[in-house]
Write a structure and sequence with these properties.
Order of helices and strands: EEHEEHHHEHEHEHHEEHHHH
Structural class: alpha+beta
Distance between the termini: 30 Å
Helix content: 25-40%
Number of strands: 9
Largest sheet: 5 strands, mixed
Strand content: 5-15%
Strand order of the largest sheet: 5-6-9-8-7
Oligomer: single chain
Number of helices: 12
Shape: globular
Length: 323
């Protein structure tokens, strides 16, 4: 957290495990929809990966991309501003960057690991389904260049795992003395979620149900350690590649064995998180920019800010100090 932040500044930062930065954006809950739109599409020109994704999906405004961003239009002067829409905006940025990097030139066959499950409920209508089709198309285009691109997502927790953890232990599933994984049937997934459509992939929609609007992955549960009680992780493999599960899990295993500081969790995801975290010198620089912006707005009352900065924000901490 920032030491002094009256603007409720939020950082949107996306970095991969090789420290390649794809996005560094600063917004606040009061940022206008018009300003956000111009950052990505201005005068018909796509300026960012999010703008390119919007163009691909055929939308011209962020509130058309997600109904959860429609609340930005309703902000009125004097009304409270909720920061909840920022998490939706952050996820949209992350999906757009994933969509963008699938067009990169890769020197070798590559596994792209997504931080989380390959499913989302923030998109309007069937836009997520259309995005998944675009992802599959770009993976196929890489295959024509003799490059195999695999896509999987791994989460730290899941409703499925929470519900069936005891059953797995009683049935001695994934309690082997070697790494292992098991596929989760869609029917089991559906019983774990309040909204069954969050578990309904293309394989279920083809059985006569509603079109798949939210799910891009086939869920597996995987254990990468060699002890019976090593951690189990929920893993989504891109639904078009579930028949390649053995190749994908082999690559994840090689990465997870070197996991640190979280054991048996992919090291590449941990490195990406470390690279994206705003800490130390980066956070100090951002704090300086915020203070400078405040000074500019205060004009003749700048000394008040300096006085506030000298005040102790948490005098209660001294109750732990021994004399």
């Amino acid at each position: 957290d920032l030491h002094f932040d009256p603007y409720l500044i939020q950082i949107i930062r996306v970095v991969d495990s090789s420290n390649n930065s794809y996005c560094l954006e600063v917004i606040s809950p009061s940022t206008s929809l018009e300003e956000l739109n111009k950052r990505h599409i201005d005068g018909g020109q796509m300026k960012t990966p999010l703008g390119e994704m919007m163009a691909y999906l055929g939308v011209k405004s962020l509130d058309q991309l997600s109904p959860m961003l429609g609340s930005i239009r309703t902000i009125r002067r004097g009304s409270p501003v909720s920061p909840t829409w920022i998490s939706v905006y952050r996820e949209l940025v992350e999906w757009s960057i994933l969509f963008s990097i699938l067009q990169k030139d890769y020197a070798t066959d590559t596994l792209i690991l997504w931080d989380g499950l390959l499913r989302s409920k923030i998109f309007s209508g069937d836009l997520f389904h259309k995005l998944l089709q675009g992802i599959a198309q770009r993976i196929d285009e890489q295959k024509k260049k003799n490059r195999k691109i695999y896509l999987a997502g791994i989460a730290k927790r899941s409703k499925v795992l929470e519900r069936y953890r005891l059953a797995l232990a009683l049935e001695k599933i994934l309690t082997t003395d070697y790494p292992a994984y098991v596929e989760v049937p869609r029917t089991i997934e559906e019983k774990a979620y309040i909204w069954s459509e969050y578990a309904r992939g293309d394989d279920r929609s083809k059985e006569g149900g509603e079109i798949n609007k939210f799910v891009g992955g086939k869920m597996f549960l995987a254990k990468f350690g060699s002890h019976p009680w090593d951690p189990i992780w929920p893993v989504d493999i891109f639904q078009n590649q579930k028949h390649k599960a053995d190749i994908i899990f082999g690559a994840i295993l090689a990465d997870a064995l070197n996991g640190f500081p979280v054991p048996f969790y992919p090291r590449s995801l941990q490195k990406a998180h470390e690279n994206a975290a705003l800490v130390d010198f980066d956070r100090t620089i951002l704090q300086g920019y915020i203070l400078e912006a405040i000074r500019t707005n205060l004009n003749d009352d700048k000394q008040i800010l300096d006085t506030l900065m000298l005040q102790d924000l948490d005098p209660s901490q001294y109750r732990y100090t021994r004399g």
